Amino acid sequence: MIQEFKEFALRGNVMDMAVGVVIGGAFGKIVTSLVQDLMMPILGFLTAGMDFTDLKIILSPAGVNEAGEEVAEAAIMYGNFIQVTIDFIIIAFSIFIAIKMINKLRRKQEAVAEDTPQAAPSEAQLLTEIRDLLKEK
């Protein structure tokens, strides 16, 4: 059972996934900071400091009922929905830009790899190809 666990835990896919999760968590923190620390203050400035999270439609105000018990406010919190939607759009756009940059770097790397001359085939490979061509004729 221990041997099976070692084989499972040390398999390449599991290690790749673990690295992906760790990097994904770190990237999530970067994107969250981008949204909260950079984008939202700019958006707040452009909207004259308006905080969307406080926007709501009050269905029934908080107060005290006939029995003397406190009753919580019932409200539709549409401002929070707007805030979360804006956060999502910024996060999705940030991830799009990051993926676009990664793909651009990959394409550059592939172009460099294509321009790099390949190693000359070995003598055995050349003889095998010649033999195969002679068999076809």
Describe the structure in your own words.
By secondary structure, the chain is mostly helical. It has two domains: 50 residues; 87 residues, no CATH class. It is 69% helix and 8% strand. The protein is built from four helices and four strands; from the N terminus they run ααββββαα. The strands form two sheets. The chain has a two-stranded antiparallel sheet with strand order 1-4. Strands 2-3 form a two-stranded antiparallel sheet. Helix 2 crosses helix 3. The longest helix has 38 residues. The chain starts with a helix and ends with a helix. The model has no long low-confidence stretch (mean pLDDT 81).
How far the N terminus sits from the C terminus, by CA atoms, comes to: 57 Å
User: How many beta-strand segments?
Assistant: 4
- In the sheet with the most strands, the strands line up as 1-4
Give the number of helices: 4
Q: Could you give the order of the helices and strands?
A: HHEEEEHH
* Uncertain stretches: none
Write down the overall geometry: elongated
How many domain regions? Answer: 2
How is the biggest beta sheet arranged? 2 strands, antiparallel
* Estimated structural class: mainly alpha
How large, in whole angstroms, is the Cα Rg? 30 Å
Amount of beta strand:
5-15%
Average pLDDT rating: 81
The helicity comes to 55-70%
